[in-house]
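Tokens as discussed.
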């Protein structure tokens, strides 16, 4: 989630305890459609992450050394500042150059595979981060086959009331400040 105002508003929802409220709503008996929807969204998210990583490997294999054939390639082969060939300047650059296959070989599978959903969560009936759900919901709206992140939808539905509430609070604070100035 990159929009500064959305980040602030979603943070306010988290502070107000909506993560717990939404989790209870998601897990409530008689509303299995919410959980089923989120399971589809989580699985879709995990598959899309793997798809994008594989695309990155295909498009971004600009490295002079092909690490895909070396399952033992790791970041310890890269000293800070230079690789063996002298073409990588940081450990982060070295990581970016590694292929999906070598990342999996380095035990990243548990963090990058398809079994992890939105925000890397494994338990699809739990909620970790409203920002991630909101971003996923907004991103999937343009998809040909949206999987419907219902938690992200709830966040977006809550934002207008949060905006009105903050507008009223600002107006009241401005009124109090005006009253205080008049009294002086």
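Sequence:
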């Amino acid at each position: 989630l990159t929009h500064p105002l959305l980040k602030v508003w979603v943070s306010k929802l988290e502070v107000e305890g909506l993560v717990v409220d939404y989790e209870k709503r998601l897990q409530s008996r008689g509303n299995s459609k919410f959980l089923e929807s989120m399971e589809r969204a989580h699985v879709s998210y995990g598959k899309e992450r793997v798809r994008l990583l594989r695309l990155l490997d295909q498009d971004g294999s600009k490295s002079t050394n092909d690490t895909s054939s070396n399952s033992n390639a790791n970041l310890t082969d890269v000293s800070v500042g230079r690789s063996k060939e002298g073409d990588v300047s940081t450990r982060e650059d070295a990581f970016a150059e590694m292929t999906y296959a070598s990342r999996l070989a380095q035990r990243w599978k548990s963090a990058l595979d398809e079994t992890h959903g939105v925000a890397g969560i494994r338990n699809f009936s739990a909620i970790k981060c409203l920002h991630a759900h909101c971003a996923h919901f907004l991103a999937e709206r343009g998809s040909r086959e949206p999987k419907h992140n219902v938690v992200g939808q709830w966040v977006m539905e809550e934002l207008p009331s949060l905006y009105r509430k903050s507008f009223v609070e600002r107006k009241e604070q401005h009124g109090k400040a005006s009253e205080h100035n008049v009294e002086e």
